[in-house]
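agent: user wants the full assembly modeled, not chains individually. Plan: 1) parse entity lines 2) check alphabet per entity 3) run joint structure prediction 4) return tokens. Steps 1-2 passed, two entities, 722 residues total. Proceeding.
--- entities ---
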Amino acid sequence: MLGKFGKLRRNIALVSVLGFTLILAQGLMTTATRAAEPIKIGFSMALTGALAGGGKQSLVSMEMWAEDVNKKGGLLGRPVELVYYDDQTNPKNVPGIYAKLLDIDKVDFVVSGYGTNLIAPAMPVVIQRDLVFMGLFGMNNNKKWKYDKYFQILPSGPNPAVDFSRAWFDTVMALDPKPKSIAFIAADAEFARNLKEGAVTNAKRIGLKITYNKNYKPGTPDYTPIIRAINATNPDVIYVASYPNGSVGIVRAVSEVGTKARGFGGGMVGLQFSGIMKGLGPKLNGILNYDFYVPEPNMNLYPGVVDLLARYQKIAPSRKVDPLGYYLAPWSYAYLQVLGDAVNAVGKIDHAAIAKYIHATEFSTVVGKVKFGKNGEWANGRTLTVQWQNIKKQNDLQQFTKPGIRKIMEPAAFATGTVKPFNALR
Amino acid sequence: MFSFELLINAIVIGILLGGFYAALSIGLSISFGLLDIVNIAHPAFIILGAFICFIFNSHYGIDPILMGIIFSPVFFLLGLLIYRIYYERFEKTGAEALRGLAFFFGLMFIIEVILIMSFGVDFQMVQAGYIDFKATFGVVDIPFRMFVPFVFAMLMAIGLQWFSSRTFFGRAMQAVAQDSLALRLMGIDPVKIKTIAFGISIATCSIAGALLVIVIPIEPSVGRLYIGQVFAIVVLGGLGSQSGTLIAAMLLGLVESLITTFFGPSWSPAVAFGALILVLAFKPTGILGRVGDTRG
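--- prediction returned ---
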């Protein structure tokens, strides 16, 4: 027989056991639920607006990465989920999107959308939260912030604005006779201005005389007055930093007006896009421009890129994105690949530890070995300078899938051709 | 850097550029200028027209301008339908000011989304023999990429001016803008006149779209680049005046071209819009606006 206190003790013991069991069960359930909960990666992306061509292309490739990772068991044993919103290529939309991703969607990581102008407004939000931030094709976005958790996949180099055009200047200085003067024209937008600023530094370093240096407003419908004004200053080479619409207008204007400059191009965004390549056709011949991946034989050191592009090209028609995907698909896959590898290596969601790991590691990605420098840019740049050669037909996309059309001039390790004067190829 | 060659070419290109701007704005001079409808979706209709031309050009090789002309009756019917909705839902109830504006904003986004879903977001271009052709007269080069749109813009502007000043219906269109009550007292239904006038303004978008895709590569949202410009041209020209719109477009084109050539392209928008402010300061009704019209 239990006394009054004995009963009480028994009841307390029973309640304690029950409570402990419940806590344990809840703990186990929480662990199990968390294991099944996806790791969310949030970002804004230009799915409409001027940069949507690049944004949608990137998204397809990022989804391919998520699919590949999930097939292999995800990150830290949890599936990966991409959470994204359309920024409409409007920088004003970006801070709000990142605040929503972090506060409402509770994402575990954020990565950037496509392009300098859309990375810049996300930086303060991300820096305030002290998070790892992978950048997709940003030009010198970390210059002001010097943020130690920012990493950027555009292979510009440690001094991005200057290094980006270094290969272009090395190429034009190989022309015989060597150029002595240069003209600059750039779109009035952050990326183009940064690019031109770096190119001007390179021109001064080499000792080229600057004959013309102006910006134009995006949306200019006709560029012949600009080309004429540049021609009137008689430059030996012309450096252009432009966005897709401007790039097309400038190529058309230089075809109509002509130029005596022996080198032309530089930082013309859009000439790498399938629709534009197809439409401009032979008008591209002779242009020396930047690029990151071209179907030349010397680019085989990018492991897995051929396979990735083949898979992308199968999906592209149904997703109504760039059918070739050379320009962005490998890079948007690679920047998530770096993040994913780092998370798995660190073994937990610890942004400080992940940033430290990324700084210390050389990654093997679909765009080859990637090592980041102190400022989060590539420790060694790998921007290509290519020259369009041998384009015979207009409206024929297939010709751009073959080697010999965009010959690599620089870096020397990748070179597949030698530079020729602009008009020799027209 | 000044030379006669630069000057003469800058003037020629300025005039051609003005023709291009006129093509984009002429329809808006009817809807916004005459009918007081703030059709913010006007550039989106132009892009719709441009995409139709692109499809027929890329699949069947049909000339974009021909397609623009062929499709203009379809755009006319679309305009009739849109105006009926706008009238019934907003104008009739006196809610056209803000809700009507929101309606056209909505239309703009719907058109953009439909285009994105149908064609994707890549830049598209058309092919036609004359696009790469240029005529040279001494030191003057005339690129047909700009000249052909200029010619059709002229035809469109002159045709519309003739229509609005010489035909019964055109005069009724002008009358709607001036005094729709008086028009009603004369036994003419102003709503019917407005419906047809709005149809005409949308029909011009089909041809303007064809001219646009000849000049620049297109993607679904590229029309947004020109919203400010087309409204500025219509206001500068004088609300409701097709001739004024044409002159304003030419003025803007010329100023842009001359400033770009001699002072640098970054100055051209500031100077062009500065000219707009100056003109409006001295003549608030715009270049050919009617005296007493206080809308400008």
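agent: reporting back. The first strand of chain B starts at residue 134 and ends at 137. Chain B touches chain A through 49 residues (CB under 8 Å).
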